[in-house]
DNA sequence: TAAAGGCGTCG
DNA sequence: CGACGCCT
């Protein structure tokens, strides 16, 4: 026996605490192998076994396979009996201190007759959901389960063979594992099933998106794009921008980015992004991404912010008040703005992409009405992602100008007339709703709303922008984007002491115009000292 | 450490 | 008018 004592320097925290006979038999087996066993962190050293300074503490998830869906932050916090801190990342500090492994680490180690490396059995903390309601219920259920099961079997049969059977089954499994290697494949299969499924989901996702991305670093770009979108949707706009800029840097490389050291030297890539690049290359996963996607707080903020007119402040406020679903919001929030109500009404429609071909249809439809029924001298362009050549668009952006017309009230009147025509029954109420209230006498040069091209279609977001002719160049740049491109060239302007907006290019200090009449974009590019870029080349960062 | 800029809506 | 959100 002495030579088989492999866990001599180990201290196991067994979670959750299971009191079934089989669990206790297992615990005794671990102890025979030299391990000290506890059920939570705070009881270490309180029992007969004292912690030695060289003891390696390992948190072992018992019955991992059947519990994996139930494990979340509150579950672990409660099991480990640690101080609860509601910040999303508090578990990280524990994990840094003590490894968390699935129980097959013990099983496989026993089979191998030696302690196997923890890494390959490590429980991925990034999967841990922060979800108090589910886990509280589950913990209650769990604490009863084994006693309940035993009681039922005892009632069925007073001699208790059922109990014995449970015990035999579980210890059998372990003994089989110890005794024979023929089970090795089965164990492997059983325990890797779920991970394989995760990988397949990821792969499908990856394949779908990677159609649009090629090059030696497409995997990194894929993950960084996911991170960018995740951060955008929870209101972390600087992180969003930084990821997009990093993608821009990486997508220019013609060689695969392999190491931290290579990455850190590149512009727009700092320590944390370089580490993530290394993680992606090693594991083909990004734990932070899975954390964000599975964290109840982040996914709820994400959900709320997809409502038009709900930003980070309101989403956080709702989250803090305990709201978790769109239904909660509809029922319990009594001060929704009219735009937010529309955002909920059209939640699905406005979160769907629009095929490029449909945008073309809208363009033809609006152009026709504008020229025939409003003013034949108008010039009408589709902007945004459409002008940048993308196959799908988030919305429909229409810029309208009139040659040599700088009269804003005339332009406003044109817009009012156009909108009222598009709202009319003559055109099947094409405009369904307004997000910027532009009445017939509105002086606004903008209109945002929802529109319907035909009965079978979805309601689409449409934006109109009336532009004085002298502002056309700056407006074309602004309304073409993308957002990151705009920020980059505006930053270039700042560095030259200038200010670039949709109105024009001015001197930062005096506010005077740099260019009197900038009808075209090229003049502005020239003044900034940068080469003209076609709209298709302004898709910065994915 | 800094990070784009203008404008509409709400209270 | 400040805070918030939206547009690229």
TrEMBL record:
The keyword Metal-binding applies. It holds the Pfam family DNA_pol_B_thumb. Residues 2-123 form the BRCT domain. GO terms for molecular function: DNA binding; DNA-directed DNA polymerase activity; metal ion binding. Its EC number is 2.7.7.7. Its main location: nucleus. SMART domains: POLXc. CDD domains: NT_POLXc. It comes from the Eukaryota. The keyword Nucleotidyltransferase applies. It is an enzyme of class 2 (transferase). One of its GO terms (biological process) is double-strand break repair via nonhomologous end joining. Signal peptide: none annotated. One of its GO terms (cellular component) is nucleus. PROSITE patterns: BRCT (PS50172). It catalyses: DNA(n) + a 2'-deoxyribonucleoside 5'-triphosphate = DNA(n+1) + diphosphate. It is found in: Nucleus. Belongs to the DNA polymerase type-X family. DNA polymerase that functions in several pathways of DNA repair. Involved in base excision repair (BER) responsible for repair of lesions that give rise to abasic (AP) sites in DNA. Also contributes to DNA double-strand break repair by non-homologous end joining and homologous recombination. Has both template-dependent and template-independent (terminal transferase) DNA polymerase activities. Has also a 5'-deoxyribose-5-phosphate lyase (dRP lyase) activity. PANTHER family: DNA POLYMERASE LAMBDA, DNA POLYMERASE TYPE-X FAMILY MEMBER. This is DNA polymerase.
């Amino acid at each position: 026996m002495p030579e088989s004592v492999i866990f001599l320097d180990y201290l196991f925290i067994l979670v959750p605490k299971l009191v079934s006979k089989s669990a206790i038999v297992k615990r005794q087996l671990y102890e025979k192998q030299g391990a000290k066993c506890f059920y939570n962190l705070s009881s270490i050293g309180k029992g007969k076994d004292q912690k030695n300074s060289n003891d390696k503490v390992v948190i072992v998830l018992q019955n991992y396979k059947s519990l994996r869906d139930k494990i979340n932050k509150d579950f672990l916090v409660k099991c480990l009996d640690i101080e609860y801190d509601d910040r999303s990342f508090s578990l990280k500090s524990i994990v840094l201190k003590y490894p968390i492994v699935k129980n097959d680490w013990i099983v496989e180690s026993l089979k191998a007759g030696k302690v196997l490396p923890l890494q390959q059995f490590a429980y991925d903390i990034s999967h841990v959901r922060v979800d108090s309601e589910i886990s509280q219920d589950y913990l209650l259920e769990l604490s009863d389960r084994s006693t309940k099961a035993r009681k039922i079997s005892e009632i069925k049969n007073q001699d208790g063979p059922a109990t014995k059977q449970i015990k035999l089954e579980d210890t059998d499994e372990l003994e089989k594992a110890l005794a024979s290697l023929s089970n090795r494949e089965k164990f492997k299969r059983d325990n890797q099933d779920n991970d394989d499924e995760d990988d397949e989901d990821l792969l499908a996702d990856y394949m779908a998106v990677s159609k649009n991305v090629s090059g030696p670093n497409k995997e990194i770009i894929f993950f960084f794009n996911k991170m960018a979108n995740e951060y955008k949707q929870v209101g972390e706009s600087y992180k969003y921008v930084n990821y997009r800029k990093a993608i821009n840097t990486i997508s220019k490389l013609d060689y695969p980015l392999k190491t931290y050291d290579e990455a850190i030297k590149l512009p727009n890539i700092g320590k944390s992004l370089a580490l993530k690049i290394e993680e992606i290359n090693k594991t083909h996963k990004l734990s932070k991404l899975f954390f964000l996607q599975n964290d109840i707080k982040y996914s709820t903020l994400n959900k709320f912010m997809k409502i038009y007119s709900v930003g980070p402040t309101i989403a956080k406020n709702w989250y803090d008040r305990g709201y978790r679903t769109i239904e909660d919001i509809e029922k319990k929030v009594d001060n929704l703005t009219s735009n937010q109500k529309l955002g909920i009404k059209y939640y699905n429609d406005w979160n769907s992409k629009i095929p490029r071909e449909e945008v073309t249809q809208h363009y033809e439809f609006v152009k026709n009405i504008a020229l025939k029924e409003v003013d034949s001298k108008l010039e009408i362009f589709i902007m945004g992602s459409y002008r940048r050549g993308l196959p799908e668009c988030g919305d429909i952006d229409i810029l309208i100008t009139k040659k040599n017309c700088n009269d804003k009230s005339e332009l406003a009147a044109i817009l009012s007339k156009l909108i009222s025509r598009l709202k009319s029954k003559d055109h099947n109420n094409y405009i369904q709703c307004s997000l910027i209230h532009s009445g017939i006498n509105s002086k606004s040069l903008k209109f945002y709303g929802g529109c319907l091209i035909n009965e079978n279609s979805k309601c689409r977001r449409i934006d109109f922008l009336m532009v004085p002719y002298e502002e056309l160049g700056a407006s074309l740049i602004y309304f073409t984007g993308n957002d990151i491109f705009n920020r980059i060239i505006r930053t270039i302007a700042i560095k030259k002491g200038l200010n670039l907006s949709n109105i024009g290019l001015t001197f930062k200090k005096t506010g005077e115009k740099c260019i009197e009449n900038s009808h075209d974009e090229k003049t502005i590019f020239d003044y900034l000292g940068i080469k003209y870029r076609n709209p298709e080349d302004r898709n910065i960062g994915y």
